């Protein structure tokens, strides 16, 4: 084998080695660590998609807890707080909204009370906005936001609790006692500050 053939063989072997090393690096990158309790391992057949079951309305119930997903507008965005690169790369924060007046799945009584009760969460276009970013998973944040919405709706149909006169009197006395204690502590702090400013001759 002459010197030229030796050089060609050496160049080819170097190229083959570089290709093999590159493929091994890519295979290592694709095999990232997965915790045994990760969502993919616990639910391997899950498609991670929202599903609304078939709804059978109950005429006697004011609100059964069913919320039609097709009537909601769901917006995903970047979450805040700790979470590393996962927070910066994935849209896990959930923003659920719907127009209260146009919500055909709610009774007029519920809609009227909802407009008054949650007026601070309703924008100028009449959309009730519910947000959630408690977890780092979209589906869990959607479930949390829906549960918040259910709690708001159930609050409108829950009758107000009428307290007896004894409980009201007890609350009034506790408020008076707390106010007196607050004033006493305030005077004590003021007296301590005055004592610090006294100069001894």
Automatic annotation (TrEMBL):
Residues 78-94 form the Prokaryotic-type class I peptide chain release factors domain. InterPro entries: Mito_Release_Factor_mL62 (IPR052104), Pep_chain_release_fac_I (IPR000352). One of its GO terms (cellular component) is mitochondrial large ribosomal subunit. Its EC number is 3.1.1.29. Pfam families: RF-1 (PF00472). GO terms for biological process: mitochondrial translational termination. PROSITE patterns: RF_PROK_I (PS00745). It comes from the Eukaryota. GO terms for molecular function: peptidyl-tRNA hydrolase activity; translation release factor activity, codon nonspecific. Belongs to the prokaryotic/mitochondrial release factor family. Mitochondrion-specific ribosomal protein mL62 subfamily. PANTHER family: LARGE RIBOSOMAL SUBUNIT PROTEIN ML62, PEPTIDE CHAIN RELEASE FACTOR. This is Large ribosomal subunit protein mL62.
């Amino acid at each position: 084998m002459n010197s030229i053939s030796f050089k060609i063989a050496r160049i080819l072997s170097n190229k083959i080695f570089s290709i093999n090393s590159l493929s091994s690096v890519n295979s290592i990158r694709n095999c990232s660590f997965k915790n045994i309790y990760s969502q993919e391992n616990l639910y391997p057949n899950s498609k991670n998609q929202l599903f609304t079951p078939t709804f059978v309305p109950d005429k006697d119930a004011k609100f059964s807890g069913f919320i039609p997903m097709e009537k909601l507008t769901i917006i995903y965005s970047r979450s805040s707080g700790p979470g590393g690169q996962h927070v910066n790369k994935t849209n896990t924060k959930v923003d659920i909204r719907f127009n209260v007046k146009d919500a055909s799945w709610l009774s007029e009584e519920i809609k009227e009370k909802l407009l008054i009760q949650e007026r601070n969460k309703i924008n100028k276009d009449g959309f009730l906005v519910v947000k959630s970013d408690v977890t780092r998973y979209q589906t869990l944040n959607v479930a949390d936001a829906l549960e918040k919405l259910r709690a708001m709706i159930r609050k409108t149909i829950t009758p107000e609790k009428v307290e007896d006169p004894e409980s009201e009197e007890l609350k009034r006395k506790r408020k008076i006692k707390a106010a007196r204690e607050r004033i006493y502590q305030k005077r004590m702090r003021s007296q301590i500050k005055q004592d610090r400013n006294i100069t001894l001759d």
